[in-house]
Amino acid sequence: MTKASKKTMALGFIGLGHMGLPIATNLLKAGYQLRVYNRTRQKAAPLIAAGAKWVDSPGGVIEPGGIVFTMLADDAAVESIAVGHPDFLDRFAGVGIHISMSTIAPQTARDLAEQHSKKGVAYLAAPVIGRPDRAAAGSLFILLAGESNAKQVVEPLLKNLGQRIFDFGEKPWQANVAKLVVNFNIAAAIECMAEAFTLAEKEGIPRLKMPNCFPKRSSRALCIRDTVILWPGTNMSRLVSGCG
User: Closest Cα to residue 27, out of 39, 16, 38, 41?
Assistant: First the structure.
């Protein structure tokens, strides 16, 4: 697939939740034309008002040789779109690129890459590090892996969405492995801080006082501090699979 201008590039976006909506908004702001789909049409209203075209089915966002972003909640949601809709891959017409930005299991990414390859569609994994505010600011960290030619095509798009792009090679699932590694480190840091704050509380130091000792500049540090302070009973396994 060759590079195209913003006006001629066929882009689709599926999944307009807390992360998907600001990411899609930044693509529109950058001057790209966008077809959008979400289970709840109401969430697409700001994008439609800004010039995006609404379609009534996931396959409707795809044009032959086009590029489609998905930002969905979990493995089942991604599979339900990419595999569960029989015309999804066929509508690429043997070319095109699917960029999956969801945090999913590496094995799921392997399976998806295989399914896409059979249809001649490039599958790129591009999970992100960052919360909705960072998505809105276009300052996400993007963990990218997949076919080199496809990565070159989408790089200009991704530069509108993140402050840094980390390339993890030709195997899409390795980007998902990298995301899980990041999340494991976050979970470990949260658990460590929770234990430390509990020690402070036992000695009469209020929980809300301790965070003042930690850096405030890093969004990741803020995520960790806020989680420990506000949700001391955080489910670590859920955090590892889905934290920012």
Answer: 16
pLDDT tens-digit readout, 166-181: 999 999 999 999 999 9
Which residue in this structure is represented by tokens 């276009």? Answer: 138
What CATH number is given to the structural domain containing 89? Answer: 3.40.50.720
Give the pLDDT score at 207. 78
Per-residue model confidence (pLDDT) at position 212 = 77
Instruction: Please count the structural domains in the chain.
Output: 2
- Indicate the pairing of strand 11-14 with strand 122-125: unpaired
In the DSSP assignment, the letter for residue 37 is E
Q: Which of 6, 179, 209, 216 is catalytic?
A: 179
Say whether both 166 and 202 belong to one domain: no
| Domain boundaries, position 197 | 177-242
CB atoms inside a 10 Å sphere around CB 60: 17
Residues 56-70: tens digit of each pLDDT: 999 999 999 999 999
Contact 171, 145 (CB under 8 A): yes
**Helices marked H in 95-143:** 106-118, 132-137
Q: pTM of this prediction?
A: 0.85
Cα–Cα distance between 205 and 207 in angstroms, integer?
Answer: 6
Residue 46: both structure tokens together: 């700001």
Is residue 43 annotated as part of the catalytic site, yes or no?
Answer: no
